[in-house]
Amino acid sequence: MYQRILVPTDGSELSGKAVRTAITLAARLGSELVALYVAPRYPVSFFDGDIGLPREEVARTEKEWADKGQAAVDAVAAAARVAGVQARAVVMQSDLVADSILAAAKKNECDLVVMASHGRKGVARVLLGSETQHVLTHGEVPVLVLR
To answer: Which pLDDT tens digit goes with each residue over 3-12?
Structure first.
């Protein structure tokens, strides 16, 4: 049915629900799992929020964020292996989370994305946006959304 499942995670409790579901589903289907963390880039302009840190400090900060992401996806991959699921851990660096999820799904030839959603409605959804909604509306693979 599904050969390769992508599960984006940010290490939060909510994404943990998606991770657990993706591992269970992959184990039952005999699918491979790809765990993804999208590490943000440090703002590089004043309008994006740059506060003028030296380049070395920016590089150190971005490395810390990427290392945090690597730890998160390594933990997912380890949990998957315990469940008998073949897994890969992937970290991408981008400020465009949903686009990165879609790119990772395509690059890794995933045929299902399992992700969590806060389920925000109304003004909160408009103001905060929805990475899940973007993946749902712009992706070419099925998406299983958990709340």
So the answer is: 999 999 998 8
Long-range contacts of 131-140 (CB under 8 A, 24+ apart): 131/97, 131/98, 131/101, 132/98, 134/98, 134/99, 135/98, 135/101, 135/102, 138/98, 138/99, 138/102, 139/101, 139/102, 139/105, 139/113, 140/106
Other Cβ atoms within 10 Å of 23 Cβ, number: 26
pTM tops 0.90: no
Spatial CB neighbours of 69, under 8 Å, sequence gap ≥ 6: 11, 37, 38, 39, 91
CA proximity to 26, closest of 86, 72, 74: 86
**Domain total for the chain?**
1
Give the model's pLDDT for residue 57: 82
Return the closest-CA partner of residue 100 out of 3, 6, 4.
6
Domain encompassing residue 111? 4-146
CATH number of the domain residue 24 falls in: 3.40.50.620
